[in-house]
Design goal:
The complex is a heterodimer of chains A (315) and B (277). By secondary structure, chain A is mostly helical. Chain A has 2 domains: 2-75, no CATH class; 97-308, MetI-like (MetI-like fold, Orthogonal Bundle), CATH 1.10.3720. Chain A has helices spanning 2-29, 34-39, 46-56, 62-74, 88-123, 128-142, 145-159, 175-209, 212-219, 224-262, 267-276, 280-308. Chain B has helices at 6-15, 17-34, 70-105, 107-122, 125-136, 140-167, 170-178, 182-219, 230-237, 246-273. Classes of the chains: A mainly alpha (315), B mainly alpha (277).
Chain lengths: 315, 277
């Protein structure tokens, strides 16, 4: 088990390193001087520009700049946004909880719906319910999330005025209000996770229901719901762990779009603004954060999978 | 998994009525978009009508914020989306197969290729596209490159796994033993079996590419206005949603239907070619 962890971890380190290089290369490639971006549109004398460039260290060779940048990151110095003049670390700190909340609520909704759908679907395999669920999952992977988001706004905010159409209300103003601002975005993010998870879980459930232990439990007189939820679900969940890890990664990408639709001040919106305003520092750090977290989520999913199913460790 | 004989496959496709129906619908869509120039439609850029009209006899889908006919915008936008989708998927298959087979055959390049594939696969394609657009400016080419990269990495993994297995199969070794030359082995025996998982996934991949393109155009990272794209039409509709929801509804439904058809086609095709599922 330990050697498996170490092997996977080494791979992660290399991948994270590649992500840092990739994020850093953006600075080099983006046309326009970083110094000019910081100075602003008023412009300045040639000497001042050169002074700023020297101060920023832009006139040094690439590998030195990379080293400074990377070592800065490790010590928490994430750079200054050229748009807001604030430290990127501070902006991230303010926005990360919002994106996390969005993702977590979305996962919770999808997982609960998925457990129920997959179990019932597997149990009544071939019935109209099963086909209905399969139909829903196909819809789930076909429907564009931003369209779902906007349709939700159309129906629930504009037509019926139940939920706000955008903006984030923090928990300080009450959990009810906070949830009301998050529920539509979370639902908009959910279809894909629900769909992929349900499909995978359903086929695992069907496999599990053929196993002997199910027959034994039923013949012992156990309640059907106990059989399903206590035994089958646990075993069926195992192959779904990696799907969950993968889809959570995709969620991070999807959250960019949803945050735009609902004007949520999260990390995704930060990266989009960084892109729109050519704010290099923000885009770099944003990519780094996202890339690394996706990597670690996959890593965690792999570890969990290996922990639960010993056969994987010996690959 | 072996590729069946072509006529047998064809018969199976005809026999599956849902698959046949969806395939026909999708091909009709494509055909309709291809002949759009010859149809009596408004030009997608023409400011011919009054803005934000609901569907009426003059314009079936209504009009958008500045008076352009929605129906023709949806049709021409669909053309762009399909074009981008097909390009992305083709590039993805071509380079994915090449790198997958190279990785399987060359121990030296294997780590580099598979490592890059892993890295690019984990990275959300939306963010990759934003990163590239931030560096090189938004546009269709960047969009295609970004989306293709995601597809190439998935296909590389698929082909690599399959190639490793097929490489060791007895009939490949037998062909080598008889003295069949390398080219013949590759084309006739190796390639068809190695590509099969990729081919089976094609419709679904096309659907994914189309949806992602719409999302990226919605964000402003993809197709640039005034070229119509479903994503662009929908993002422009947002500000005037309370006045007219139609610029949101119609492109969205069309996008959904196209991708839905592709997913059903992909699923049923998968069922036919991989009956063990």
């Amino acid at each position: 088990m330990i050697s498996y962890i170490i092997r996977r971890f080494m791979r992660i380190i290399i991948i994270v390193f590649c992500i840092t290089v990739f994020s850093f290369i953006l600075t080099v490639v983006i046309p326009g001087s970083a110094a000019l971006a910081l100075i602003g549109p008023e412009g300045a004398s040639e000497e001042y520009i050169q002074y700023m460039e020297h101060k920023l260290g832009v006139d040094q060779p690439i590998y030195i700049r990379y080293y400074n940048w990377a070592s800065g990151i490790i010590t928490g110095e994430l750079g200054i946004s050229s748009r807001t003049r604030q430290p990127v670390a501070l902006m991230l700190w303010q926005r990360l909880p919002i994106t996390l909340e969005l993702i977590i609520i979305s996962i919770v909704i999808s997982v609960i719906a998925s457990f129920f759908s997959a179990l019932m679907s597997g149990r009544y395999f071939g019935s109209w319910f099963d086909n209905l669920i399969l139909f829903f999952t196909t819809i789930g992977i076909s429907i564009p999330r931003f369209w779902v988001g906007m349709m939700l706004v159309l129906v629930f905010s504009i037509k019926f005025n139940i939920f706000p159409s955008g903006g984030y209300i923090s928990i300080n103003n009450g959990i009810g209000k906070n949830l009301s601002s998050m529920i539509l975005p979370a639902i908009a993010l959910s279809p894909i996770i629900y769909a992929s998870l349900t499909r995978q879980l359903r086929s695992s459930v069907i496999e599990q229901l053929k196993e002997d232990y199910v027959r034994t439990a039923r013949s012992k007189g156990a309640e059907e719901s106990a059989v399903l939820y206590k035994h089958v679900l646990r075993n069926a969940l195992i192959p779904s762990i990696s799907i969950l890890g993968l889809t959570t990664g995709r969620l991070v990408g999807g959250s960019v779009i949803i945050e735009k639709v609902f004007s949520l001040p999260g990390v995704g919106n930060l990266i989009m603004d960084g892109f729109l305003f050519r704010d290099t520092a923000v885009v770099q750090i944003g990519l780094l954060i996202v890339g690394t977290s996706v990597c670690f989520m996959n890593f965690a999913a792999d570890l969990l999978y290996a922990f639960v199913d010993p056969r994987i460790r010996y690959e | 998994m072996q590729m069946g004989c072509d006529t047998q496959l064809f018969k199976k496709i005809l026999a599956d009525r849902l698959l046949f129906f969806c395939l026909v619908c999708f091909l009709l869509f494509v055909f309709f978009m291809l002949i759009a120039d010859y149809l009596p439609l408004y030009s997608p850029d023409e400011l011919a009508l009054s803005p934000l009209q609901p569907p009426n006899w003059g314009s079936i889908f209504g009009t958008d914020r500045i008076g352009r006919d929605l129906f023709s915008r949806v049709v021409y936008g669909g053309r762009i989306s399909l074009l981008i989708g097909f390009s992305v998927v083709s590039i993805g298959v071509l380079f994915g197969v090449i790198s997958g087979i190279t990785a399987a055959r060359s121990k030296l390049l294997r780590n580099i290729i598979m490592g890059s594939a892993d890295f690019l696969w984990a990275f959300p394609s939306v963010l990759l596209a934003i990163a590239l657009a931030a560096a090189f400016g938004p546009g269709v080419n960047i969009l295609i490159i970004a989306l293709s990269i995601a597809q190439i990495s998935v296909n590389t993994r698929l082909v690599f796994g399959q190639a490793l297995v097929v490489k060791e199969l007895p009939y490949i070794k037998a062909a080598e033993a008889i003295g069949a030359n390398d080219c013949r082995i590759i084309m006739k025996h190796f390639l068809p079996n190695v590509i099969s998982p990729v081919i089976v996934e094609l419709p679904i991949r096309l659907g994914t590419a189309i949806i992602t393109e719409a999302g990226l155009s919605f964000l402003g990272v993809g197709v640039k206005p005034p070229t119509p794209s479903w994503g662009l039409i929908m993002s422009a509709s947002f500000k005037t949603l309370h006045i007219s929801p139609w610029p949101l509804i119609f492109p969205g439904i069309t996008l959904f239907i196209v991708v839905f058809l592709l997913n059903i086609i992909g699923d049923r095709l998968n069922n036919i070619l991989n009956p063990k599922r």
